[in-house]
Amino acid sequence: MIEKGKISAAQMGMMMYPTIIATAVLLVPAITARHAKQDMWLSPLWASFVGFLTVYIAVRLHQFYPQKTLIEYSEDILGKFLGKAVGLIFLFFYLHASGLILREYGEFVVGNFLFHTPLVVVMGSMILVCSFAVRGGVEVIGRLAELSVPVVVMFILII
After folding, report:
1. Per the domain annotation, does 125 fall within a domain?
2. Is 10 a member of any domain?
3. pLDDT averaged over consecutive 10-residue blocks of the chain (159 residues)?
4. Do 18 and 147 contact (CB within 8 A), yes or no?
5. Per the domain annotation, does 111 fall within a domain?
6. Burial 91-104 (b: 16+ CB within 10 A, else e)
7. Which of 149, 134, 128 lies closest to 13, judged by CA?
8. What global pTM score does this model have?
């Protein structure tokens, strides 16, 4: 039986921070520079607005439907059939996004550090490490984030 792990809001934020920073550092500057050119400085303002709006909507939905998952309250909002369809779309979206993140990680590691290592080996090792973390539970991931994120933030500030 799978236990329902409990983490604090700070742990959740610290778990999300590396994901957002990795994408921001690896992808966003190149894409933004290609499209925005000299107006690149405006991009963080628009992105912050959209990000804050997304967080506001997520917090409000959590307040309206406490103790429910995204799929559960999408059924309450949209009805049984449409809610399950939206839940299925969310699941496929997260599966697709996980695949993209895994590929980005693999390309980054192979392109910068392990030049002669096959991409499938790097991606397979990442899947193995992630599966061990999932097996350990969300509390373990939250505690690890509490330990590692401040160190990473310190290095980013030093740079």
Report:
1. yes
2. no
3. 68 79 72 79 80 85 85 88 92 92 89 93 93 84 86 86
4. no
5. yes
6. eeeeeeeeeeebee
7. 149
8. 0.68
